[in-house]
Amino acid sequence: MLLVGLKYALLLAVGGCILPNPILGGGTESDQEVPHRIYRLLDGLSGERTLSSSSTFALLLSQFLIKQKLRYEAPTRYERQLYYHLLHRMENIRTGSGGLVQEPGIQGEILSIAFQRNVLLLPHSLKLGELNANGDYEQLAEIYSNVVNEGQLNRTQSDLCLRDVVELKPPSCKLLPGQCLELLTSDAPAYGYQRTHQVLLLYVLQHQVCAPHLSPPQVYELLARSQCDEVEREQNAIRSLGLPVAYRDLYLEQATICGLFGYNEFVNWRNIMEIGSWLAGDTPKDKLADENDSQHISDLALVFFVNALLLLH
């Protein structure tokens, strides 16, 4: 009877009906903090029949980060089990929701390609003390509510440029349209989501196979450092204001996107515990200014915690 039960459970697991979390390693409670967070967020997505574009993008990016880690670093036995289980779980969630065919228009075009085709896997490691820790943020904090929405990039421009970036492919790595190149390299003042979208575009471009044909690797690193210097100044301003609920979604987006470049100023245990406290309940609704931000912050948190797992463990 026991053998029959085990065989039945195995068949369900292979079929995607049951995919239990692996037994996590025997480390300390803090060692298991991040994996537990990731699995809890994936549990929240497992029941969704149709994933939002934000959730799909978060899953694709999380899978990409894990594959990049496996490409350059030999995992321990436990890490291999954990990473491959996460990849399998994420893929099951995506395919179980109907994959990428749900999104029309530009977002659908982006999600059909992003982090799946013509990508460049690069070494990924934690970078300590590379940003300007002494950036003046006190004056910015005083006027932040007035400038947080200032900048060149809006959502439509961001989506159009992101589509142009993910569609780059060899052998003819054409230059991006002038407007997108200008947005990527501009040092004009930008704040809030305008700045984070600019940094995300840079990250995606850096990880396209055409990237080395457009600029030397050092150029991408210099641009990332310059832009994330400004993002860190914003984060310090937000922290000095007491991390208001109204800015928590933005704060997490800043930590997630600049954290993709490995900067320890964003990927650290202080942020892990702070952000984790916003997700302490079944949903983060009571931690946010707008209930509509609930899924977006969960999607950001998934990428943030996956990246933290790969960099800090």
From TrEMBL:
Signal sequence extent: 1-25
Highest taxon of the lineage: Eukaryota
Record Pfam families: DUF4735
GO CC, alphabetical: cytosol; membrane
Key words of the record: Signal
Listed InterPro entries: DUF4735
Protein name: Uncharacterized protein
Organism for this UniProt entry: Drosophila gunungcola
Lineage start: Eukaryota, Metazoa, Ecdysozoa, Arthropoda, Hexapoda
